[in-house]
Sequence to fold (205 residues):
Amino acid sequence: MKQEDRRQQTIRRLMDTTKELISEKGCHSITMQDIMSRSGMSKGSIFHYVKSKNEIFIWVLQERLEETNGSFMKEVEQGRRNFEDPMQEIEKSILAYENPHDITNKVLLYLLGKEEDPLVAEALTDYYDRSAYLSKMWIEAGQKHGVIAETVDAEKTGDMFTLMTFGLRIRSGIPQAKAVFQAEDLTAFIRERLASSARRKGEES
Fold:
């Protein structure tokens, strides 16, 4: 097996093991010993790739974002020239984030409490920046295909959507928080904000 294939296989094993443990125990209770025992990997094997469990948590956090982007880009690359199909991929992700048992939400809330760790602080910054960048890129893809008006400020609108999504995710971790504005409302707001711009563009042309 090639070294890179072995690396990817090990990372996948560590992530799958950690996600199982998060689902069962939550983030705070997991130890590296738990990960070693569940994965069947030695301490030396694990520490060859990571220095702490927080690094694995960071991988888990990033994974969903990249999966959503991959699904979105697949729709675009298949020649979708409409607003609906790519938007559905984004909506799926947002609706999942409202679930208080969502693993990535648990990881995000946990890491937000570990921001004094330089590694975690950098990862959180990168994660937010990446989220905002992808939101901007998705809007620009819609503009390129003529389904979102060019008058929409892609960077500012993408950051606004990212900020709102993060708020939704953080609220999911607050016990018994009154959720008046729900995930469906957020996706409807995003849809209307972007789709209405395309309608205005059509009316003006």
